[in-house]
Each structure stands twice: as C-alpha cells, then as structure tokens.
Known about the structure:
Layout: H1 8-12, H2 28-40, H3 47-52, E1 58-63, E2 79-88, E3 100-103, H4 104-107, E4 111-114, H5 122-128, E5 136-141, E6 162-172, H6 182-186, E7 194-195, H7 196-207, H8 213-219, E8 226-227, H9 246-293
Helix pairs in contact: 2-8
Amino acid sequence: MKLFNVFAAALAVTSAVAQIEAPDGVDQGELNEALAEAMNSMQPGTPQEQQGAMEDLKVVHIDGPLECEEEDTIEASKYVSVEYVGTIAEGSETGEIGKIFDSSFIRGQTLDFQHSLGQVPRGFDFATRGLCQGVNVSITIPPLLAFGDEGNGGIIPGGATIHFNVFVKKVSVEDFRPEYNFFEHMDSDKDGLVSRKEMTDFMLLNYRAGVPDELWNAADKNGDGYSDWNEFIFDKGEKKKRVINQDDEDKKAKAALLAAEESEASKDDAEAEEAEASKDEAEADVEEITTAQE
C-alpha cells in the first residue's frame, strides 16, 4: 500500500530551528520572525479562522488514563511519540471516506514530534494537548485545522476532513528522537554543499514555504551561494566519512590513464598524418617547379 506521509514535516523540523543564532550582520529578531513565518506558513487560515474551526475539532476517549502526573501529560515543547492510523473522516466533503492515507503500523515507525511547534497539522497539536501517556483517542480534524483548501497531495484532497485513531506511546521533556540529518537530505546532488535551490526544494516539499533571506543569510555565512557543513545551521548529526573502495579507485585511475594514453596516441597519429601530408605537398610543389623549368 502506498501511503502519503502527512507528517513529513515532523520528521524534518526540530527544536534547533527555533534556536538558531543569527550570524554577524543578521538581526536575531528578524531571523526569528522569518523562521516563525516559514514554520507557520504551512498552516492554512488565519489564527482567527482557526479558532473558529475549533468547534469542529472532535476528540473522543477510547481507552487509557484521562488523568496523569504532569510528567506524563502532553504540553507545549514536550516530546511525544504516538502510534496512529489516519483516514478520510466520515462526513468529509471531499476524499474517499474511510480511506487510509497514513499509518504508523503499516509504516512500521511511530510519529515522534515536539509539541506545539507546527511540526504536525495544527488540529493534531490542539487535539493532543493535555492527553496522557498511554491513552487511546479518536480525533476528527476539520479542513482548516488540517490541510485546508490545498490538501496535501494524493489521497488527501483540498477541503478534506481527516480522522486519526491515536495511541500516545511516550511523553517526555527530553528529546528521545534520533538526530535528523538535514544536511544529507537537503544536499540532493551529494556534492557536500547545500545550495539555496536545494534548501528551497526541501522547504517546499516539507513546509510548502520557501527560504526567507534571513534564513539563507544565516546558513550561507560567507555569501558564496552555498552552505557548507561548517556553516550549516540545522541539525545534521555527525559528518559521514567518505568510504573509499580502493579497487574502484584503482580501476578509475587505470581507466583515466588509458584514456589519456589513447588521446596522446591519437594526437601523435594526427600530427604524423599532418606531417606526411605536408611532405607530400612539398614534394608535389618541387616536382611542379622542376617540370615548369624544363
């Protein structure tokens, strides 16, 4: 089954985005504002419109604790891990009712995200706030708090109401998620540099937003048009060492040497042919002059 990962941004966005320090010459306030704008631009509607849509956001308890200790309660900035099944909701004006568009069980991977930072559809943040670790709930999210009039590609069309069956597996103040290597995912041509186009393509795919000047200037500190490993401002884990296969390198070197020798040989042959042609031409001229003198 081909699924559409509606939480692609959650796998890409980390708290590091909100903690980026502005480089020299870049105002920290402007940078933070640009980052917030990029983060929030993926959410449809205005804050006022979203507030009005809250009455259509439904959370139904299925099983598990309704009350718990503060450490086990989902709150802003906490790290959360959930199992889920996402479908087009009953009563949705668009989409195939009941169609599964994503599932952690089928995918074999939980959704791990930091709460209230725009890493998931806003309705998902709103609906899970205050839930306890170990609870199982049903969540119905109206279009304005999901993917709006644009949808999110494939099975989720614009204007779709979506539904999730969610089990809260873990809640923590500590980040338990493995580091996400932004650099590796943005560097699409694997040349060891991230261009603005590569960063923009990544942002459009995951955020539906481009790269503000303030963000790019922070990532391209020396202004050469690229962000290298040392300049890069997002999470990137450890730099991978290039593994060299010596046999392959030897083969490449021999092939290059052979190509160079063949090129040189061809050049020598061409020069020899040119010299021979010049010699024949000179002999013909001498013969012509001799004949004329006779």
